[in-house]
Amino acid sequence: MATVSISTIFTFLTIFTLPCVAHSVGVNWGTMASHPLPPPKVVELLKSNKINKVKLFDANPYVLQALSGSNIGVTVGIPNNFLRNLNSSNKAADSWVHDNVTRYISNGGSNTRIEYVAVGDEPFLKSYGEQFQPFTIGAAMNIQAALKKANLDRKVKVVVPCSFDSFELGTNLSAEVHFRPDLNKTMIELLTFLNEHGSPFFVTISPFMTLQTKNISLDFSLFKETARPHNFSHKIYKNSFDLSYDTVVTVLSEVGFPHIDIVVAKIGWPTDGAVNASSNLAEIFMKGLMTHIHSNLGTPLRPRHPPLETYIFSLLDEDQRSIDSGNFERHWGLFTFDGQAKYHVDLGQGSVSLVNAQNVEYLSSRWCVVNNNKDLFNASGNALEACLNADCTAISPGGSCFNISWPTNISYAFNSYYQEHNQSAESCDFAGLGLITTVDPSTDRCRFRIEINTSHAKFYRVYYFHWMILLLTTLEMASIIV
Ligand SMILES: *[C@@H]1O[C@H](CO)[C@@H](O)[C@H](O)[C@H]1NC(C)=O
Ligand SMILES: *[C@@H]1O[C@H](CO)[C@@H](O)[C@H](O)[C@H]1NC(C)=O
Ligand SMILES: *[C@@H]1O[C@H](CO)[C@@H](O)[C@H](O)[C@H]1NC(C)=O
Ligand SMILES: *[C@@H]1O[C@H](CO)[C@@H](O)[C@H](O)[C@H]1NC(C)=O
Ligand SMILES: *[C@@H]1O[C@H](CO)[C@@H](O)[C@H](O)[C@H]1NC(C)=O
Ligand SMILES: *[C@@H]1O[C@H](CO)[C@@H](O)[C@H](O)[C@H]1NC(C)=O
Ligand SMILES: *[C@@H]1O[C@H](CO)[C@@H](O)[C@H](O)[C@H]1NC(C)=O
Ligand SMILES: *[C@@H]1O[C@H](CO)[C@@H](O)[C@H](O)[C@H]1NC(C)=O
Ligand SMILES: *[C@@H]1O[C@H](CO)[C@@H](O)[C@H](O)[C@H]1NC(C)=O
Ligand SMILES: *[C@@H]1O[C@H](CO)[C@@H](O)[C@H](O)[C@H]1NC(C)=O
Ligand SMILES: *[C@@H]1O[C@H](CO)[C@@H](O)[C@H](O)[C@H]1NC(C)=O
Ligand SMILES: *[C@@H]1O[C@H](CO)[C@@H](O)[C@H](O)[C@H]1NC(C)=O
Description:
- The structure is a single chain.
- The chain is of the alpha/beta class.
- The protein folds into two domains: 20-330, Alpha-Beta Barrel (TIM Barrel); 367-437, no CATH class.
- Helices cover 36% and strands 13% of the residues.
- The strands form five sheets. It has an eight-stranded parallel beta sheet with strand order 5-4-3-2-1-14-11-8.
- The structure holds 2-acetamido-2-deoxy-beta-D-glucopyranose (12 copies).
- Residues 420-422, 454-455 line the site of one 2-acetamido-2-deoxy-beta-D-glucopyranose.
- One 2-acetamido-2-deoxy-beta-D-glucopyranose (NAG) binds next to loops.
C-alpha cells in the first residue's frame, strides 16, 4: 500500500516537476565588429563554456565552417534587405537555402547542425516603420517551401524574430495589451504560418529597455526578492521578465494561439554606455535570469513551462553596432570584444565561472595618446572627428570612461581611432597632436583597448578550403568529360 502511494507520488512529482520540453540556454553571436575574434576562436570559446546553441544574424561561411562538426545547434539568419527578393522569387529562396543551409548540412561527417532559419532580423522593429512588413511572411513561406524541396523541413524550422516593441502595453502596466496596431494583421499571418509548421515564436524580451520606458524599479528588473510587485491581468508579478513574457502570452492567446511555443530570441543587460549599464548590474540580472530559467517555475500564465529556449544577447561586444537607440548597444556582451568574461554566471552547464578565450592574438602593445607638449586648443575638434569613425561610447555620459579628465578623454578617442586603423602610424597623426606610446594609459575602470590582429593566416584557411573544393570539383568534372 505504502509502496504504491510512494510510487504514485513519485510519478506525480516526475510529471509535474519535469518541464514539458527541456529548456536550454544559447547565445547570440553577432559579428558587427571592426576586428572580430576569429570564428575558430569563438567556437572554442563556446565549447569551453559548454554553450550548445548559437543564433547568428547572417550565414557567414567562415562562421558556419568553424561551427561544423561542433554539434552546436545553429540558427542562421537572413538579413532584412534580402526579404523583398525572397518574397518575390521562389528561385531566390531555393538558392538561398542551397547556398546557406543545404551545403553545410550535407557536408558529410563534419556537418553544421542548423536548427532554425531566422527570416529577417527583427524586421518589425518600430523604427523600421513598414519597410519590411509586406515581404516578411512571403519570404518565410518561400524559405519553408525551399527547405521542403531540399527535404530539410523536418530538421530545420523557419522562424521570424520579433522585437520587444511589437507589443504595446500601457505605461501603468495594467492597461490592455495588444500588438502594435500597424502589425496586427502581419502578426496573425505569422502565427498562423508558425502554427501550421510547428515552429516556435521567437521574441526579444528586454527588461533593460522596459526600465527606460516604463514606471518600474531597477530591483524589479533585476529579479530582486525585495522588489515591489506589479499586478497584471489579475496576477501578481515579482520581476520584469515574467511580466514581459506574460504580456506576450496574453497577446498570443487573445488572437487564438494560447499554446504556441515561445523562444526568447534575445535577452541581456549591457555593461557600458548608459546609466545602469554596468558589469555589476549585468551580473545580478544574468544570475537572476539563469536561476529563474533553471528553476523551471515558468511564469504565472505558463507555470512550469519556461521558454523552449533562451538566447542571451550577446556573446561578445561589437564596436560597429548602430548606436541609434543608445551608446549601450555596443556593450551587450557576456565577454568583451576579445573574449574575456566581464563577470561570472552559471549558464546552467555546471560551471560557476565563465572561461575566457585563449591565446588571442593582439596587435602590438602600443597606444595613441595626445601629445601634452603641443598646443591643444583644437584637440577636441580632432577627437570629435576621430569619434565619427571610431568607437567612443565609453567616454559618453554613463560610460566607463566618462569621468576621465581632459585631455585623457582626447587620448581615448585618438587611441580608438588608431586601433581601429590597425595601428598605422598615419592614424595617430591628428594634425601633429598624436603620440604613439608603449605605456598603457588604462585605469582600473577605463580600458584603452588594443585591437585583435585579424590579419592572421588561419582566418583565411576557409577561403583556401572553398577554393580547393571548387578546384577539385572542376578537375573531377573535367576528367568525366574527358
Ligand atoms: C510578394 O510576393 C508575391 C508573390 O510573388 C507577390 O504577389 C507580392 O506582390 C509580393 N509582395 C510585395 C509587397 O511585393
Ligand atoms: C546566401 O545565399 C545567397 C543566394 O545564393 C547569396 O547571395 C548569399 O551571399 C549567401 N550568403 C549569405 C551570407 O547570405
Ligand atoms: C491605466 O491607464 C489606462 C489608460 O492609460 C487607464 O484607463 C487606466 O485607468 C489606468 N489604470 C490604472 C490602474 O491606473
Ligand atoms: C487584431 O486582429 C484580430 C483578428 O482579426 C482582431 O480580433 C483584433 O481586434 C485586432 N486587434 C487590433 C488591436 O487591431
Ligand atoms: C510610478 O510608480 C510609483 C510607485 O508605484 C507611483 O507612486 C507613481 O505615481 C508612478 N508614476 C507614474 C507616472 O505612473
Ligand atoms: C493586486 O492584486 C492583489 C491580489 O489580487 C490585490 O490585493 C491588490 O489590491 C492589487 N493591487 C493593485 C494596485 O491593484
Ligand atoms: C537607474 O537606476 C536607478 C536606481 O539605481 C534608478 O533610480 C534610475 O531611474 C535608473 N535610471 C535609468 C535611466 O535606468
Ligand atoms: C599580425 O599577424 C600577421 C600574420 O600572422 C603577422 O605577420 C603580424 O606581424 C602580426 N602583427 C602584429 C602586430 O603582431
Ligand atoms: C580643428 O580641427 C578640425 C578637425 O580636424 C578641423 O577641421 C579644423 O580646421 C581645425 N581648426 C583649426 C582652427 O585648426
Ligand atoms: C570615476 O567614477 C568612479 C565610480 O563612479 C570612481 O570610482 C572613480 O574614482 C572616478 N574617477 C575619477 C578620475 O574621478
Ligand atoms: C573631454 O572632456 C572635456 C571636459 O570634461 C569635455 O569638454 C570634452 O567634450 C570631452 N571630449 C570628448 C571627446 O569627450
Ligand atoms: C585592418 O587589418 C585587417 C586585416 O588585415 C583588414 O581586413 C582591415 O581592413 C584593416 N582595417 C583598416 C581600417 O585598415
